[in-house]
Amino acid sequence: MDQTARKVLIADDEPDIREFLQYNLSAEGYEVYTAKDGDETLDKAKRIQPDLIVLDVMMPKKSGVEVCQLLRSQSAFKDTIILMLTALNDDGSHIKGLENGADDYIGKPISPKVLVTRINALFRRLSKPKAGLLTMDSISIDPEKFVVRVEDKEVSLAKKEFELLYLLAHRPGRVFLRNEILNQVWGNEVIVGDRTIDVHIRKIRQKLGIDCITTVKGVGYKFER
Amino acid sequence: MDQTARKVLIADDEPDIREFLQYNLSAEGYEVYTAKDGDETLDKAKRIQPDLIVLDVMMPKKSGVEVCQLLRSQSAFKDTIILMLTALNDDGSHIKGLENGADDYIGKPISPKVLVTRINALFRRLSKPKAGLLTMDSISIDPEKFVVRVEDKEVSLAKKEFELLYLLAHRPGRVFLRNEILNQVWGNEVIVGDRTIDVHIRKIRQKLGIDCITTVKGVGYKFER
DNA sequence: CCCAGAGTTAATAATAACTTAATATTTAGT
DNA sequence: ACTAAATATTAAGTTATTATTAACTCTGGG
């Protein structure tokens, strides 16, 4: 299977809808997974880390809306594209979906053409470009393998630490405001105190051993050298 | 998501209006965030630093007018475009909005076309070109990296020093009154003595090494060369 | 169940930024 | 050249921001 294939998770309690979606999306080259209720969706989403989730509003265990809210409250899913599926294509549920963080919705019945077009459009519009390997002299950061190498020694960072370092390092010299950092790394729904950033910065400095993050007091942090 | 997408924050207590705006503005390529009451608006505005805020007049917690006033009293939002939304399209609330620092207003009900046209127009009319790199011969000022380079040597200034230098340098030759400087750099609520400016000027001159700030006695300062 | 690691918070310490006040120097007007 | 007013300079005092540490929660794996 293509290494860069987009992963799509389909969540619907009706087997024939799952099959229909799976068929059409596989044909488009997506890597498709399915779930049949809210809880299973959450489990699989966590394991698979899909790029897009097709979420039926009406599902057993947890409704699509609930699942959507739960996913959006976790920073791991802040960039996951969520497409709601609803039989009720009245404004009410449409609204409810988008309000809770969905990126788009489609009303049943679904035409294969509309579905595929919409999903492709979502990817075009929303997906972040895949992060690439960063290399500065004596330090390299690989987001694929999740590894940082400093002077030929491998350093393992925790996820938040890594994301923070990557954010700063992908634009060396540029100052990132604390707000920007919170938005990019934690997402704008999550609320954490300012000291949290400091603590992560400290751990990064500590683990890397070399001083490559500069504090700009009253402003933010930047990566240098 | 486009890295340079304009950020728009929508503040309205009615879910269907939020959704309506979100849908239409997302489709235009804006990066859209929402808030459902006054307090949430202030929180998110601070966090997200949107380029434009669509502000409903009638909201719980704090009204749009209050939010507008509060935002405008903070220097971080002096360039944020504010568009008021009101069901009462009588002159009274229109005036009240503009009086309190809003840049435009739209009366409900809203047509998507009008909305998008108006917002695009506001951006065209009001948005400042991104604070950019200033380059004069032998000196360059980079607000993104928060660094000044003088004859290929990097000089790091503290926040107030930098803001002051940037203010003067972005209009070389133009004299800035002490009052203007206080307003722009310190904001109009903060009260500091006149000597404070002198001290910062001195530090800048000292750090840069070259004399590029001229005193205009009895008037103010200007950047030259 | 317990442990280990990640993530967060809160309290305190440390430090840099900022402001002020006191004194010296410069400038412009007479 | 004298004077008054404005600015320059310096050092010291204050405040704001960040660094550091340790404790606490939460989660998943053994």
Describe it.
The structure is a homodimer of 225-residue chains. With 225 residues, chain A is of the alpha/beta class. The first copy, chain A, folds into two domains: 7-126, Rossmann fold (3-Layer(aba) Sandwich), CATH 3.40.50; 134-223, Arc Repressor Mutant, subunit A (Orthogonal Bundle), CATH 1.10.10. Helices cover 41% and strands 22% of the residues of chain A. Chain A contains eight helices and twelve strands. Chain A has helices at residues 15-27, 38-48, 64-72, 91-99, 112-126, 159-169, 178-186, 194-208; strands spanning 7-11, 31-35, 52-56, 81-86, 104-107, 134-136, 139-142, 147-150, 153-155, 175-177, 213-216, 220-223. In chain A, the strands form three sheets. A five-stranded parallel β-sheet of chain A has the order 2-1-3-4-5, with helices on both faces. The first copy, chain A, has a four-stranded antiparallel β-sheet with strand order 6-7-8-9, with helices on one face. A three-stranded antiparallel β-sheet of chain A has the order 10-12-11. In chain A, strand 11 (213-216) and strand 12 form a beta hairpin. In chain A, helix 2 (38-48) runs parallel beside helix 3 (64-72) and helix 6 (159-169) packs across helix 8 (194-208). Chain A binds chain B through residues 91, 94-96, 98-99, 125-126, 128, 173-175, 177, 179-180, 182-183, 188, 216-219, 222, and chain B through 1, 15-16, 18-19, 22-23, 33-34, 44, 46-49, 144-147, 158-159. Chain A binds a DNA duplex (30 and 30 nucleotides) through helix 6 and helix 8.
